[in-house]
Every structure is written in structure tokens, then in C-alpha cells.
Amino acid sequence: MSTKPLKYFALATIAASLVGCNSSSSSDGKTDEKSLLMNVRLIETTDLHSNVRSFDYFTSKGNQEFGLARTAVIIQEARDEVDNSLLFDNGDLIQGSPMGDYMANLGVEYLKRHPHPVYKAMNYLQYDAANIGNHEFNYGLDYLDAAIAHAQFPYVSANVFEFDENAIRSGKVQLNTEECSFDIEDHYAGDYDEFFDEYQPYFNPYVILDREFIADDGNHYPIKIGVIGFVPPRIMDWDKRHLECKAMVADIAKSAEYYVPKMKEEGADIIVAVPHSGLTNSHNVEPFMENAVWQLAQIEGIDALMFGHDHKNFPTTSDAYDGIPGVEPEEGTIFGKPAVMPGFWGNHIGVIDLNLESVNGSTWKVATSSAEVRELKPYTQDAVVNWLVEEDHQGTIDFMAEEIGAIEEPINSFFSNIVPDISVQIVNEAQYDKGLHWQKEGVLGEENKALPLLSVSAPFKGGRGGHTDYTNITDDALTRASVADLYVFDNNTPSVLKLQFKDVVEWLESVASQQYQQITDENLALLHQTFRTYNYDVFFGGTDINDLNYEIDVSVPSRYQTAANGNLETDADGNFIVREQYNRIKNFTYKGQPVNLDDYVLVVTNNFRAGSTYPGVGNADRIYDDEADTNRDIVAEYLDKLASDAAAECEQDPSCDEPVIEFDNMHNFKLVGAEGKTVTFMTSGLGDAITYAEEHIEPGLLKATEETGIIEDKSGYRVFELNM
To answer: If you placed Cys at 249, which of 233, 305, 505, 538 could pair as Cys (CB 3.0 to 4.6 Å)?
Structure first.
């Protein structure tokens, strides 16, 4: 059970023995400086989300496609190929899988005494440093502090600061209420440098690692590797209940501009930026950007970028980064600097090779570099990682197996953007039911008691993580695992918005613009396949088939201008580009009648969506935030209620053998236009998807073809036909 040694040597007496190796004498007695070369390999993991074992806790089956136990094998292979290497993690570690849920359920006090399973594995793998991701804050600062206390490697994050009331009084942080709430857009009124000098970082902004590495002459030389990390500033929105009046954030690029020169002053030879931040649309520069890698790459002094957050691969042959100035996606460079983003859940590692040169053996600079992502090898796992987390693994299995109630029909999200499904409707029903309670009790304001109430949710598992990453409840009972399967994001909290019906329609227009391509005689491909379905918002207005209905006409050009991947595009001022002449949303009705678009309506959603700038959403008033419960809690509570009601009904019915929870599909939306055409789209190629299409969807509507599909280098999809 011994661990393998690190790929560097801490040799305190080496420097003296190297003096004679750094120069040579010429015939005229002058000393010529000798040029030295050294290769340093940087290895990255990102967005592990507590996926340590290669195991799908929703299906109770092993999985070949992810998990740190598998990643560990290719990490060690990458180390063994070179003399000098460093291993970093980019963040989003402690949340995001059933194992993360299980540990959060055990609580802070348990975590103070027992290492989180991710750190059991990472300490064994001997990481050199790690960055804080946005999901690290999902369970609060006390939980985060207790978790990272077990890490046997340094953590960095340069743009999170301890909250200081003096920042309020000085005007450097602008409040919008007296309850210590602020918008990050108005976060600073003062001078940035003064702010950085005055206030205390919550984490170490950076670390400088002292290493002794082998050069091409076979000798060891000291080198200082600086590592600096960043987190998306929107944590202040996403985890408002945990961070308000406890932390402050700074702009990523501004933080780098302040700290990178200091790292150079402290002797860093090489500086590696490890931002938990993506590259999507990053060339539209705005303050407090979530995805700021494009800006970071232009900051002098940063030599390499190991990023994450987007759950994509970089370098890549996909067209996801086409048109972004300075980005060479196939080469893996941004403004000439090597950059990697290795997917998610441990399904890849990022590898950057820096070829360094020195003229004196004491200072080094990058001469050339290369970048790549490496994928997992099938059927290989690190037995030690599995052994280290075995107790946590079994605890997670037991935790997720607790039954709620019986069902008779499968529930899945394979076709959520094609036909209305129960997986999204269950979440909407739960939120709607809770919203009705709040409305009746006056929690939403006496003036709002008579307003129409809607709920909105999305298919949170829609293939982003591969062809198995769909809600897929096939057993005859709902369990705690089913709740997590239906609502993946356990950190989301409920919010209620007040807006006009015209804003709801505009909201839907933006969704339809992003998800669907225009169907023409020349184009029969229906979906922007890389659009993230957790943004495919579906509205719900009650448990009567006529409560809320709308149509989406896919033969009409999109109302909002989108990029090739479906993302909304903005103009030079950051405004969404709307084409007023087009409308895809047709026949929008409430309670069976057309609506007055100027009438007000309440919408139950989550804090993530409530804080967005989506068309329509941006016009809403956020009238209520429930910070005591999560949206997942509301779903669990609602299912418990349905199970209790079913049990009570069964007791009154002599013919009932077992209480069953039943759901009636409200069929809120319908795709129209392009009548008579057969269009194509990709979804999971699993047999469960094919069987569901054949047995549970209107006959003749969907058909699986023999053609397999690949989305962003992820195989396992199948092309389906939709008869319009």
C-alpha cells in the first residue's frame, strides 16, 4: 500500500555541487555561459465533482467513462514518461455526485474528523497544488474550510476576499439594500490596487513551489513554479445565502494584473494560471466575467493556462472556439501560450510540456511548449484509490437506495427537448405546489395573491456528460437516488420572479433560439447539439391539460441571434441581438385562453436562473428567495407527499395491492412547422432510449436510425428521426 514518490527531489546541498556545471573556460581565459534545457510537464484534472469511484450511483453499475480511480492510471503514466512533473487540480471537487451528496448529508462536524473521499485519493496521488472552484462554496464556508483542511497540498484563489464592513463604509462595495446584499456589477467604487492592498484574501492568492528538477545535462537545478488560481465572480449570485456578508469577490483579470507582477518579484521562474473559468464567448470583454481565460492569456507573466468550468476539452478539433481572436484550438494555444481544459469527472487529463532554457541554471524561461488532453483507458483502475474510498462508496450506495414509493412507468430525459416528459414535469410540479403554498400564505406579498402562478425547470441531465448522462429511472420505485437524478444541482435554492407574460414569451423565444436550428429544405438537423439542456427551460402552469400550452415553430428563423453552438450572441455593448420580425413561440395560452401580454405573472424557478440576464428574465423583479431549502429538497418533499397520498388511497381501496405514485403528462409544449418533413437529432444510443421511443411515445413520431452520432468527441449517441 506504499505510495509512489513525487517526481522531484528536495536536495538541500545540490546548489553547491552545480557551480562548476554552469560555465566553461575559453582559450582566452574568459568564461562562457552555458545554455541549459529542461523539460517540465504540467498535469491537470478539473471538475471531478466527487467522482472518485468509476461508478454510476443512479444505476448502481460500474462506468468506464469517468472517475478518479481511472484518471489515476493515466496520471501515473504521464509522470513516468518524464523526469519532472507537477500535478494540479482546477476545482469543483466536493460537490456534484451522489458521493458528494452523501458527504454533505453527514455534515461539517463529521468532515472535521474524517477526510472527504476526494482528498483521500488526491493525497495518495500527491497533488502539488489546487484551485478553488465555484461549486466548492455550495455547502457553505464552514464545510469548505473543514474539507480542504485535509488536503496535503496548497490551495490558491486570488479573487475571493474576506468580508470587511470597512469596505461598505468606504464605498468600495456598493450595497443595494440595508441587508448586506450587493450586485457584483456595482461591487467596487474605489481603486482596485487600493482594494487589493487593504483587504484580506480568503485563500492564498498564489503559491510559489520550490522544486529541484533535472536538466538535459543530468544535473538538478532549483526552479520556482508560481501557481495562481481564480473562481467565477458569480459565486456571489450562485451561493448568495452562503457568501453574503462573509466574502467579497474581485474581477479575475484585475486580480491577475495585480498579483502576477508580485509573483515575479518573489522570484517565480514560470507562472501557471489555474482558473476555474472557461473560454466560451470570452472575447466579449466585460467586468466580472465568468469565463475570463481569454483575458488571462493576454496578461504578461503568465506562461501556461490550465482551465476548467466549461466541461469541455481543449485542445480540440471541434468548432466551439472558432472566431475567437488569438485562439488556436487544435494547437492548444491562446495568444501563443499553451492551454488545456481536460473535460470533467476525471474523463481526461490535461498535459502541458514546457521546454525551458536557462543561461545560468538559476533562472528559467519557456522556449517552446505543447499541450494535449489524454483520455481514459478502458478497464484500468487504481486499486489503491478504490480501497481508500471503499467505506464512503458503500455509504453512498446505502444512502441513495432509500425508497420513496413505487412507480409503474419509466422516467427519463432522453427526449426532453423533443416532447414534454415527466422528468422535467415532476420538478415543475414540486415547485408549483410549493409556490401555491407560499402564495396562499401571503409569503409572496398580499398584492400578489391573485396573480397567475407558473413554474419553470429544465432537463438537468441532457447528455452534457456523455451518452449515459440522462435522467433514467427504470426501476419500479423512486429512491433518494431518483431525486438526485431528477435534480442534479443540489445547491440550487428556490426563487420567485414577478414579470409580465410578454417577458415569459420572450424568455421562451431565447430558449427556442438556442436549442433549435431553423428547419428548411436544405437543413433537416433540428438541434444545436452542444446547447446545454440545463438551459432548456420548460414552463408549467398546473395539473390540468389546459393550464399552460405553447407551440415552438422550428420553420421560423430564430428571434435571437446565436452562434454555431446555439449560444446567444451579443453586440459590442453586451446586448443580446434580437431580430424583431421573427417569433417562434406561437399559441401561448393560460387556462385555455390567450393571455394579455401586459398582465403580470409569478414564476417559481431557482436562484441560478433568477440571477441570469436571459431575455425576459432580466425584466423580472425577484420577489422571494427561499434560503432554507434547496430545489432538490422541494422535489423530495413533494414526492414524499405523493407517496403518502398514494398510500392513503391504497388503504381505502380493497383492490389495491401496492400504493403507486402516478404522473399525468401535461404536454405543455409542441414542436410545429416544417409539416411533412422528417428531421433528425441526436440523443443517447442506450437501449433504454430506443425502447422508450418505441413503447411510450406516440406511435410513428420518433424512430431510431442505424446511424451513430458523436458530440464534441463523445461517442455513444444515436441519430433519431422526428416525423413533423
So the answer is: 233
Q: What is the DSSP string of 52-96?
A: -SSEETTTTEE-SS--HHHHHHHHHHHHHT-S-EEEEE-S--SSS
- Predicted confidence (pLDDT) at residue 350 exceeds the cutoff of 90: yes
Query: Which sequence spans correspond to the domains of the chain?
Result: 14-49+79-92+126-162+201-341+352-368, 165-199, 402-723
pLDDT recorded at residue 203:
97
Q: Which CATH class is domain 402-723?
A: alpha beta
Going by C-alpha positions, the residue among 332, 306, 336, 307 that lies closest to residue 317 is 332
Q: Cβ(155)–Cβ(206) under 8 Å? A: no
Average pLDDT over residues 428-441: 95
Interval 711-715 mean pLDDT: 77
Q: Which residues are bridge partners to 228 per DSSP?
A: 206, 273
> Which pLDDT band holds residue 357 (cuts at 50, 70, 90)?
very high
pLDDT tens for each residue of 606-631: 999 998 888 999 899 999 988 778 89
C-alpha to C-alpha distance for 481 and 220, rounded to whole angstroms:
52
194 pLDDT higher than 80: no
259 touches 206 (CB < 8 A): yes
Q: Does residue 43 contact residue 75 with C-beta atoms inside 8 Å?
A: yes
**44: nearest Cα among 6, 88, 78:** 88
Q: In angstroms, rounded to a whole number, what is the distance separating the alpha carbons of residues 353 and 356?
A: 9
All three cell numbers of 237: 449570485
CATH label, 14-49+79-92+126-162+201-341+352-368, candidates 3.20.20.70, 3.20.20.60, 3.60.21.10, 1.10.260.40: 3.60.21.10
What is the C-alpha to C-alpha distance for residues 227 and 156, in angstroms, rounded to an integer?
A: 8
pLDDT per residue as tens digits for the range 444-488: 999 999 999 999 999 999 998 889 999 999 878 999 899 999 999
Instruction: Supply the pLDDT for residue 215.
Output: 96
Cell numbers at 340, concatenated: 488545456
Q: Which long-range contacts (CB under 8 A, 24 or more apart) does 210-214 make?
A: 211/8, 211/84, 211/86, 212/8, 212/9, 212/10, 212/11, 212/14, 213/8, 213/38, 213/40, 213/83, 213/84, 214/38, 214/83, 214/84
Cis peptide before 315 (omega within 30 of 0): yes
pLDDT digits (tens, 9 = 90+) for 57-88: 888 888 878 999 999 999 999 999 999 999 99
Q: What's at 153, amino acid-wise? A: F
Mean pLDDT calculated for residue range 284-306: 91
Would you report the helix, strand and coil content of the chain in percent, each value rounded to 5?
30, 25, 45
pLDDT in tens, 106-153: 999 999 999 999 999 999 999 999 999 999 998 999 999 999 999 999
Length of the chain counted residue by residue: 724
**In whole angstroms, what is the distance from residue 292 CA to residue 493 CA?**
26
In single-letter form, the type of residue at position 698 comes to: E
Q: Half-sphere exposure of 43 toward its Cβ, with a 13 Å CA cutoff?
A: 26
More confident: 438 or 464 = 438
Distance (Å, rounded) from C-alpha 393 to C-alpha 476? Answer: 24
**What's 689's DSSP letter?**
H
- Contact at 8 Å (CB) between 423 and 472? no
* Secondary structure in 3-state letters for 457-503: ECCCCECCCCCCCECEECCCEEEHHHHHHHCCCCCCCEEEEEEEHHH
- DSSP element (H, E) containing 660: none
- pLDDT tens digits for range 156-168: 999 999 987 665 5
- Name beta bridge partners: 32: 24
